[in-house]
Every structure is written in C-alpha cells, then in structure tokens.
UniProtKB/TrEMBL annotation:
The protein's name in its UniProt record: Probable GTP-binding protein EngB
EngB-type G domain location: 22-195
Top-level taxonomic group: Bacteria
UniProt keywords, alphabetically: Cell cycle, Cell division, GTP-binding, Magnesium, Metal-binding, Nucleotide-binding, Septation
Native organism: Paenibacillus psychroresistens
Length: 195
C-alpha cells in the first residue's frame, strides 16, 4: 500500500473513544518492548509517529493511527511487563480482551514475537486464546536483524513449536531496523482488509 498520510488519532481508554467510521482495524499485540510501535513506524516509513521507547510498558492505551483513509493501526498495550502491579495488569488484560472480543472492525491481529527468544508463556497463552476466540492472526517474528540469517529457520521452528502454530496462519520474519518483511506484511494486511 502506498502510504500518503498517516496520523495519530487518539489514545483510547474505552469503547466510547473508539472511532465510529467503521474503517478496518489492524491490531498489534505482543510483549512490552517487542517492537509494536517500531513496526508501525516502519510500515508507514515515519521515524517516530508511534512512540517507541527502550522503557517497556510505555504504551498503556489503545493508540489509533489512521493510514490514508483506508485503515487504522491499533497499537495495544504490551503484556507481560513484570514491574507493573498485578492489579493494573489485570485491568489492561480485561481492557484488551473486551476490545478483541467485541470490536467488529478488527480484520487482523498482528501478534509480535521476538525471533531471538522462544515465545514466553504470555505469548503462548495469547496465541492460544486468540485462536480460541477466532480472531484472524498473523504472527510477526521481529528483531530478525539481531540474529544471523543462518539461524532464522532454527528460531522460526522454535517459535512454531512453542505456539503450536496453526499452519494456515501466516508467519512473517520482520525487522523494523532493516525493513525486512515490510512488503510481505503489507500484502497480508491488504488481503485482510479486502475481505
Ligand atoms: P511497548 O509500547 O512498551 O509495549 O513496546 P513496543 O512493543 O511498542 O516496542 P518498541 O517499538 O517501543 O521497541 C522497543 C525497543 O526495541 C526500542 O528500543 C526499539 O528501537 C527496539 N526495536 C524494535 N524493533 C526492532 C527491530 O526490528 N530491530 C532492532 N534491532 N531493534 C528493534
Ligand atoms: Mg509501543
């Protein structure tokens, strides 16, 4: 997709703040610090529209970004950030859960995992739950630039095995640093919003 315009719309804390123009939404989920905001920036070729941070747990709301007048990226709060209090984590969990369960506009959820490491318990739980509730998923294994190419397939297998990956889902190797996987991911997104 050619991105002519990308703009931040709102940091939503509840359904009353979600846009009501019925445009398709592409949601991004994954552990804190996995690279969700960086992936959005890379897809739209903007350095810092989606705020990134080396401090995990920064994105704590549903952040909507409008791309042209075609779709929204919805940057979800990262999960599994241990330093956040348990109560707060549970509130986030419920908030994301309600959005994922009820929001009809979601056409695809990008589940980001770090290609360098085996998926965490939270990653495995999230994938399983998403499959259970039937949200369309594309798994994006990111930070690929941080390991040598010769190890990618081995790491991908670890990701697949740990998630009990459904072969009918897409799995894309990505790097926000180099832009690897960008065109392939855009294709998956375009296919998802045309349905
Ligand atoms: P939260 O908003 O806290 O949930 O984090 P996030 O998932 O949005 O992560 P973010 O995009 O802020 O990235 C976290 C850190 O990882 C930043 O320092 C990024 O520069 C770095 N990073 C993200 N993606 C990549 C990548 O593909 N390669 C490399 N080398 N670094 C990356
Ligand atoms: Mg973020």
């Amino acid at each position: 997709m050619k991105v002519n315009e990308a703009q931040f719309i709102i940091s939503a804390v509840g359904p009353s703040q979600y846009p009501n123009d019925a445009l398709p939404e592409i949601a991004l989920a994954g552990r804190s610090n996995v690279g969700k905001s960086s992936l959005i920036n890379r897809l739209i070729q903007r350095k810092n529209l989606a705020r990134t941070s080396s401090q995990p747990g920064k994105t704590q709301t549903l952040n909507y970004y409008l791309i042209n007048t075609d779709l929204y990226f919805v940057d979800l709060p990262g999960y599994g950030y241990a330093k956040v209090s348990k109560t707060k984590r549970e509130v986030w969990g419920k908030f994301i859960e309600d959005y994922l369960l009820k929001r009809k506009e979601i056409k695809l959820l990008l589940l980001l995992v770090d290609l360098r490491h085996p998926p965490s318990k939270d990653d495995v739980g999230m994938y399983k739950w998403l499959k259970h509730v039937d949200v369309p998923i594309c798994v994006v294994a990111t930070k690929a630039d941080k390991i040598p190419k010769s190890k990618w397939q081995k790491h991908l297998k670890i990701v697949r095995d740990a998630l009990i990956f459904d072969p009918s889902d897409r799995l894309i190797i990505f790097s926000s640093e180099t832009g690897m996987g960008k065109d392939e991911l855009w294709q998956v997104i375009e296919d998802a919003i045309e349905v």
